[in-house]
Design a protein that fits this description.
Length: 302
């Protein structure tokens, strides 16, 4: 049995959650959040109350595994979601399905239902097929078989937010265990890390007003890492919060990234890799790895 305040590492040892979990080590190393959002431009999230394997692709339910394979061939991610606590493990009625096209500046998310996994064969990527989602929803990674920090911190956060009447779901792997608790806000498409109840509620409140809360924001799921960093730098520099206000020009990697508004304002942001960052483990129990996060210079308008 694991002692209170400790976690099981993949090597079988015991480590204090608050000091040696990958999330604490990443935060202690000062690893930036900006530019780490997962690439989830197209996704479908399906309510599933059974056990989640380490990889959704390896799910014992062939209906789930086949849906994963079909969506992957269409460049669409599949997340499994559930309500927190006992309610998330028991569902006899309709199951929620979110279909999300997280195109920057014009995200579209709809909600529909299925009766069970037998109906998953009929699920398709069609954001126009369901009821539009306008009120903010937060998906919090609580995928314990992928990482202990997600299980411990993610599930705790989801429970606290549910108690505060937030629309929150636990979900499978969002990427970036070391930033746990991590979350994806729908319909805006912005992702967050190192969340607590206060800043998670702040992110949801901002989304309710079609805005972005830049604090603890990892970036927009529809943008490349350098674009994410540049966009957040402009938001912090200017105070622009409107989710649809900024457009980011395509980039091939670090360098000068151009961010502009729909009314013609324009900024150039120098995005570079920081080779002096401290090493950190990518997940609990993993060895330390060198990290070169992307960082932004001051946006220059003109």
């Amino acid at each position: 049995m694991t002692a209170p305040g400790t976690l099981d590492t993949p090597a079988g040892g015991r480590a204090p959650i608050t000091t040696t979990g990958c999330a604490a080590l990443s935060a202690g190393a000062g690893e930036p959040l900006a530019g780490t959002a997962p690439a989830l431009r197209r996704l479908i999230a399906v309510e599933h109350v059974g056990a989640w394997p380490r990889k959704v692709a390896d799910h014992a339910d062939t209906d789930v595994a086949e849906l994963f394979s079909r969506l992957r061939s269409q460049d669409t991610a599949l997340l499994l979601i559930r309500r927190t606590g006992r309610a998330g493990r028991d569902c006899d009625g309709a199951r929620t399905v979110y279909v999300a096209d997280l195109a920057p500046g014009c995200s579209r998310v709809t909600r529909t239902t299925v009766r069970g996994t037998d109906d998953l064969a009929a699920v398709t990527f069609d954001p126009a097929a369901g009821e539009p989602v306008t009120d903010p929803v937060l998906l919090v990674c609580a995928h314990g078989r992928r990482d202990v920090c997600c299980a411990v911190h993610g599930r705790s956060l989801a429970g606290e937010l549910a108690a505060a009447d937030a629309d929150v779901w636990e979900c499978t792997h969002l990427g970036g265990h070391r930033f746990a608790p991590t979350g994806l806000v729908l319909p805006t498409g912005y992702t967050y890390g190192r969340l607590d109840t206060g800043n998670a509620l702040a992110a949801l409140k901002a989304a309710a007003g079609s805005a972005v809360d830049p604090w603890n924001c990892r970036g927009h799921a529809g943008l490349e890492p350098a674009q994410q960093v540049a966009e957040l730098a402009v938001r912090e520099h200017t105070g622009i919060g409107d989710v649809d206000a900024l457009l980011v020009e395509p980039v091939d990697g670090p360098g000068a990234v151009v961010v502009r508004t729909r009314d013609g304002r324009r900024w150039s942001v120098d995005v570079r890799a920081d080779s002096g960052a401290a090493a950190r483990p990518p997940s609990c129990g993993a060895a330390l790895e060198a990290v070169t996060p992307l960082v932004a210079g001051t946006p220059v308008e003109g």
